[in-house]
């Protein structure tokens, strides 16, 4: 994976922001900017066409915003990881984006090195959640969601769930439990199905709420 180039798509309605992001990211040895989109609809179309590894997505854009674009990508089952890059600090804008499928978020004034690190992190399968946003997500979850379903998990699935909550990628979980990545993916799918959850972020939050985190 050291030689793998992470292909990134920029989606933001401000050309100056896109230019700034591109200028910095293009000096990274392991990151390549493969395209730019000025709104959510164009971002979805270019994600389908270019198949980037990571999409840097603004939330507030004219026309199709970032949250709607996330929902469309989820419906298309596009494998790209989406990292929200926003200047809006209100939880009411960030939380819906995470619930729509984003792997995490950073603010537009983020330190450049931290941005590169965030891209590498979500590419590796990690979920980037600030403590206050994780708390807001938990507060919005239906208190009955998943209740009692944890008993249907096998011991191995509980181990995998705990490592998901720790932010581990499938590859890291496989190494930790001495399993193949294919087996880990099967366990993750079974966990989501049994708990009636749609993604790893919800699984991590479920684990925190129900004491299954490591």
Walkthrough of the structure:
The protein is α/β, with parallel strands linked by helices. The chain is built from 10 helices and 5 strands, in the order E-H-E-H-E-H-E-H-E-H-H-H-H-H-H. The protein has helices at 15-25, 40-50, 66-75, 91-99, 112-123, 131-140, 155-165, 170-177, 181-195, 200-209; strands at residues 6-11, 31-37, 54-57, 81-86, 104-107. The protein has a 5-stranded parallel β-sheet with strand order 2-1-3-4-5, with helices on both faces. Helix 2 (40-50) runs parallel beside helix 3 and helix 7 (155-165) packs across helix 10. It starts with 5 loop residues before the first strand and ends in a 5-residue tail after the last helix. The model has no long low-confidence stretch (mean pLDDT 84).
Quick rundown:
The protein is α/β, with parallel strands linked by helices and 214 residues long.
What is the element layout, followed by pairings?
Blueprint: E1 6-11, H1 15-25, E2 31-37, H2 40-50, E3 54-57, H3 66-75, E4 81-86, H4 91-99, E5 104-107, H5 112-123, H6 131-140, H7 155-165, H8 170-177, H9 181-195, H10 200-209
Parallel strand pairs: 1-2, 1-3, 3-4, 4-5
Shape: globular
End-to-end separation in angstroms reads: 26 Å
Strand content: 5-15%
Structural class of the helices, strands and pairings? alpha/beta
> From N to C, what is the helix and strand string?
EHEHEHEHEHHHHHH
Query: What's the total count of β strands?
Result: 5
Average pLDDT:
84
Most strands sheet: 5 strands, parallel
Helix content: 40-55%
Gyration radius, to the nearest Å?
17 Å
Strand line-up across the major sheet = 2-1-3-4-5
Spans of at least 5 consecutive residues with low confidence? none
Q: So how many helices?
A: 10
């Amino acid at each position: 994976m050291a030689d793998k180039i992470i292909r990134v798509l920029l989606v933001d309605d401000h050309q100056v922001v896109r230019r700034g992001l591109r200028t910095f990211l293009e000096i990274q040895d392991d990151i390549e900017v493969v395209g730019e989109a000025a709104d959510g609809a164009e971002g979805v179309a270019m994600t389908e066409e270019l198949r980037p590894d990571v999409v840097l997505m603004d939330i507030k854009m004219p026309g199709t915003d970032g949250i709607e674009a996330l929902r469309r990508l989820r419906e298309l089952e596009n494998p790209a990881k989406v990292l929200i890059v926003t200047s809006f600090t209100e939880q009411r804008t960030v939380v819906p984006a995470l619930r729509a499928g984003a792997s995490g978020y950073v603010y537009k004034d983020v330190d450049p090195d931290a941005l590169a690190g965030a891209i590498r992190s979500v590419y590796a399968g990690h979920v980037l959640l600030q403590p206050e946003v994780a708390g807001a997500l938990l507060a919005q979850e239906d208190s009955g969601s998943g209740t009692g379903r944890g008993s249907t998990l096998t011991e191995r699935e509980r181990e995998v769930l705990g490592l998901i909550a720790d932010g581990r990628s499938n590859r890291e979980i496989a190494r930790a439990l001495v399993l193949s990545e294919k087996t880990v993916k099967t366990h993750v799918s079974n966990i989501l199905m049994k708990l009636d959850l749609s993604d790893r972020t919800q699984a991590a939050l479920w684990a925190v709420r129900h004491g299954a985190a490591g």
